[in-house]
Specification:
Number of strands: 12
Structural class: alpha+beta
Order of helices and strands: EHEEEEEEHEHEEEE
Distance between the termini: 59 Å
Number of helices: 3
Strand order of the largest sheet: 7-5-2-3-4-11-10-9
Shape: globular
Helix content: 10-25%
Largest sheet: 8 strands, antiparallel
């Protein structure tokens, strides 16, 4: 059995960031790659770095067999999840978190803005971490880096969550 587990509360909060596109329908699920769990809709991405290093050797997409309740513990394994090892998981996802650079897209009279749905999703993930009582209060640190919103949620014994959100640019109103 897997040594990676998450509460249903955290699973459901992370799934808010997953939303398949016609170009890549696998993104409707989370995926595991190189010791981390990711969810993305191609505009925002969340990365969970578990405190305990996972024992999986390969990348894969996964989704719970049935939506877990908030208090249920979900182990990422073939017994509790649909596992897709045939689809290719995105590579180098960590680079997106280390050096986001959407600044080149900004025009003269445009300013970066954030879709408020993503702020609500970030807050829901922070609240889920807080409800897990894992040695963290779920506080969320927000920062702008190269015109990109980055959020960090420290989850104590459960590791750390990072979210990166691509800005939508709006014209400055003078």
């Amino acid at each position: 059995m897997s040594n990676i587990k998450m509460s249903g509360r955290v699973y459901n909060a992370m799934m808010k960031f997953a939303n398949g596109t016609s170009a890549c329908p696998q993104l409707a699920n989370m995926f595991y790659s190189e010791g981390r769990v990711y969810a993305t809709d191609s505009y925002a991405a969340v990365r969970w770095t578990p405190a305990v290093e996972p024992d999986f050797a390969e990348s894969f997409f996964f989704s719970a067999n049935k939506k877990p309740t908030a208090s249920q513990q979900l182990y990422i394994s073939a017994e509790t999840c649909d596992i897709d090892i045939e689809s290719i998981a995105p590579k180098n996802m960590d680079k997106l978190f280390e050096e986001p650079n959407f600044a080149a897209m900004r025009g003269e009279n445009r300013v970066p803005a954030i879709n408020p749905t993503y702020l609500a999703d970030i807050a829901a993930l922070g609240k889920a971490v807080k409800c897990d009582k894992c040695g963290s209060d779920g506080s969320t640190v927000l920062e702008w880096k190269n015109d990109t919103l980055i959020a960090h949620i420290y989850a104590g014994a459960n590791g750390r969550f990072d979210v990166v959100v691509a800005p939508c640019f709006i014209n400055k109103i003078d």
